[in-house]
TrEMBL record, chain A:
Residues 22-278 form the CoA carboxyltransferase N-terminal domain. This is Methylcrotonoyl-CoA carboxylase. Residues 275-523 form the CoA carboxyltransferase C-terminal domain. Gene3D superfamilies: 2-enoyl-CoA Hydratase, Chain A, domain 1. GO terms for cellular component: methylcrotonoyl-CoA carboxylase complex. Coiled coil: none annotated. It comes from Stenotrophobium rhamnosiphilum. It comes from the Bacteria. One of its GO terms (biological process) is L-leucine catabolic process. GO terms for molecular function: methylcrotonoyl-CoA carboxylase activity.
TrEMBL record, chain B:
Transmembrane segments: none annotated. Keywords: Biotin. Residues 87-163 form the Lipoyl-binding domain. PROSITE patterns: BIOTINYL_LIPOYL (PS50968). This is Acetyl-CoA carboxylase biotin carboxyl carrier protein subunit. It holds the Pfam family Biotin_lipoyl. It comes from the Bacteria. InterPro entries: Biotin_Carboxyl_Carrier/Decarb, Biotin_lipoyl, Single_hybrid_motif. SUPFAM superfamilies: Single hybrid motif.
Length: 535, 169
């Protein structure tokens, strides 16, 4: 496997300008992330302190093995929703190392609205448990929630992927033989009570932890019974009478230490064997990615320059280097793991689509996980390409992506427009993990094109009625569409809606993918089987 | 395994295989020489060549290998066989710069007769809303530029052609 030879001049003015621009973009992202993680109203912090409670980040620090990485999911979830009042969607999820085991963490954040479940809290929790299911990872739940946010109950309760899905997923995990621990650090009321109820091991803190289907006020209203929190669903009642919880703890510190000891009893998984070799740092520094990514999203760049800054030794075995050149395919190692990579170098043509489909089949045949690096404006359009069957060739690629059995990973490196998003394993195509770079954009078509198309339709409609629009009228149609499109195609909107598993600093991508790859190998890889490829 | 190194300007091809005690170096006349390289607990490196121990200092930076051996300093450059073989046969195919996709010319920054260096921007084209910069595949002189700013072209159209610097002279 030979090294990619970078064609970038790192001392050029263009590189320096890109680097300065992108460092600013990343700094802004880091600041937003810091705010979402740490900035809380003082009164919420005071309230938790007066209850002898730790903040969620302090709990995580006690839970995770010291000095090990924590891959947090969707740190900016819900950031563009609910007027920004529910940072991180009021919960923290991710993959961390507890007692030497890779586990999924699902932790309520009681410093945000008492840890109430908003619709996006539910979405984030369901996604974390989907990750646990897909990758067969044990789960540690740190429970501290005020319960469902009642004003929005219609958006979080009854539908297929709403709150019930959390409990359904817990049952599926258990059925698969994947273990779960709940640490009850606050109240688990109503639906929330089923999180410990469906876990294999439960630890509960005396005084602050409680589990019940209805709290004292609701019981009073329903049956007239007068009962205290401790008596109704406290630590001693559940660990000595009902058997709903297993381990009493006198403090949060003790509860978390018990949870660590429980995880230490788990059998370590037999990881799926794939080609692996001693890891090697990339020859080209990953921080040079800041200079590789152009300032203007319309500017094409060679995706090999990105690959060179992600993979071991910057070495890449390029498959079909002379065919379908707008899609770069090939093998590399990342943190030692052998992977196949598909990266865009322009729009997808017939030949690049076929090359992609073929390469995905190769990776499945020899059980090589696949990394998709998206920078795509879509499939080629026009008479000639339709005649050559661009639609059916694109369909072949989508078929190969959909039916792929090996773990897939997707990084939104820059643009992700139109059906290209699908062909390159977008969110709907079950990549085990999907990350986005902060300057990346996603939409069904470019903002300008969409605004012009809509204005065009309107002009023609009115022309039929014999009316004519002035430029001002046209702008009045165009501008709001343009604004709305621009807002909703930004990575911050995507990540707020959890169309990804989080935004990454490009320079961190290699490490995040290393953790993701390792986690994905806790699940076996099935044999490939596809539907009909339209020939 | 086949390996190639450059020592100064001279290229050396090496064939090595695993042996009972480390490795074997294969010489042209089917002779083999056993050798091994070990790092002691004190960090000193020892090269064992045909049963004789020599202390060496070896440092690598990318493909460059710096060696201090027997009072002399050497600099080797490791060459990947794929790269070396490609370079040996290469050239002509890179003289013609073809359009990677249909589109139009946004800007041409060179004209016929200009000397260009590898990686230099030759022209900027646009296709499907994206701008692509075409750079020189190698050092050379521009022989011809096919399209002007604003003109459209099909995929695989010849955009530019290059000739070698020497050929022009």
């Amino acid at each position: 496997m030979k090294r990619i030879e970078s064609k970038i001049n790192t001392s050029s003015a263009e590189f320096q300008a890109n680097a300065a621009h992108n460092r600013k973009v990343v700094d802004d992202f880091r600041e937003l992330q810091r705010k979402a993680r740490d900035d809380r109203p003082q009164r919420d912090i005071d309230r938790l302190r007066s209850q002898n409670k730790l903040l969620v980040r302090e709990r995580l620090k006690l839970l995770l093995d010291p000095g090990t990485p924590f891959l947090e999911f969707s740190s900016l979830a819900a950031n563009d929703a609910y007027d920004g009042d529910v940072p991180g969607a009021a919960c923290v999820t991710g993959i961390g190392i507890v007692s030497g085991r890779e586990v999924v963490i699902n932790a309520g954040d009681a410093s945000v609205k008492g840890g109430a479940w908003y619709p996006l809290t539910v979405k984030k929790t369901v996604r974390a448990l989907d990750i646990a299911i897909e990758n067969r990872l044990p789960v540690v739940h740190l429970c501290d929630s005020a319960g469902g946010f009642l004003p929005l109950q219609a958006d979080l309760f009854a539908d297929k992927y709403m709150a019930g899905r959390i409990f359904r997923n817990q049952c599926q995990l258990s059925k698969m033989g994947v273990q779960q621990v709940s640490v009850v650090l606050g109240h688990c009321t109503a639906g929330g009570a089923y999180v410990p109820g469906l876990s294999d091991y439960n630890v509960i803190v005396r005084g602050t932890g409680a589990i019940f289907l209805a709290g004292p006020p609701l019981v009073k209203a329903a049956t007239g019974e007068d009962v205290s929190v401790e008596d109704l669903g406290g630590c001693d009642m559940h660990t000595s009478v009902s058997g709903t919880a297993d381990y009493p703890a006198s403090s949060e510190e003790e509860a978390i230490a018990i949870a660590r000891d429980i995880v230490a009893q788990f059998k370590r998984p037999q990881k799926t064997h794939i080609e692996w070799q001693e890891p090697e740092a990339p020859f080209y520094d990953p921080s040079e990615l800041y200079g590789v990514i152009p300032k203007d999203i319309k500017q094409q760049f060679d995706i090999r320059e990105v690959i060179a800054r992600l993979v071991d030794g910057s070495r890449f075995h390029e498959y079909q280097p002379n065919y379908g050149k707008t899609l770069i395919c090939g093998y590399a190692h990342l943190w030692g793991y052998k992977i196949g990579i598909l990266g865009n170098n322009g729009v997808l043509f017939n030949d690049s689509s076929l090359k992609g489909a073929h390469f995905i089949e190769l990776c499945n045949q020899n059980k090589t996980p696949i990394l998709f690096l998206q920078n795509i404006t879509g499939f080629m359009v026009g008479r000639e390409y339709e005649r050559r069957g661009i639609t059916k060739d694109g369909a072949k690629m989508i078929m190969a992506v959909s039916c792929s059995e090996v773990p897939k990973f997707t990084v939104m490196c820059n643009g992700s427009f139109g059906a290209g998003n699908y062909g390159m394993s977008g969110r709907a195509f079950d990549s085990r993990f999907l990350f986005a770079w902060p300057q990346s954009q996603i939409s069904v078509m470019g903002a300008e094109q969409a605004a012009n198309t809509l204005a065009d339709v309107k002009v023609r409609q009115l022309a039929k009625q014999g009316k004519k629009l002035t430029q001002e009228d046209i702008d009045a149609i165009r501008d709001p569409v343009l604004g709305e499109f621009k807002r909703k195609q930004s990575a911050y909107w995507s990540t707020s809606e959890m169309w990804d598993d989080g935004i990454l600093d490009p320079a961190d991508t290699r490490n995040a993918l290393g953790i993701a790859l390792s986690a994905s190998l806790s699940a076996p890889i099935g044999d490939p089987r596809y539907g009909i490829f339209r020939m | 395994m086949h390996h190639a190194f450059k020592l100064g300007d001279a290229e050396h091809n090496l064939e090595i295989s695993r042996g009972a005690d480390g490795y074997r170096l294969h010489l042209i006349d089917d002779q083999t020489v056993p050798f091994d390289l070990k790092t002691g607990a004190d960090g000193r490196q020892w090269l064992t060549l045909d049963g004789v121990h020599h202390e060496v200092v070896i440092a690598t930076k990318g493909d460059d290998v710096f060696i201090h051996f027997d009072g002399e300093a050497y600099q080797l450059r490791y060459e990947h066989p794929l790269k070396r073989l490609a370079a040996a046969g290469g050239g002509a195919a890179e003289d013609r710069v073809m359009a990677p996709m249909p589109g139009s010319i946004v800007n041409v920054t060179v004209k016929a007769g200009d000397a260009v260096t590898k990686g230099q921007v030759l022209l900027v084209m646009e296709s499907m809303k994206m701008e692509t910069t075409i750079t020189a595949p190698r050092d050379g002189v521009i022989e011809a530029v096919t399209y002007d700013k604003g003109q459209t072209f099909d995929r695989d159209a010849l955009l530019l052609s290059l000739v070698a610097l020497e050929k022009k002279k």
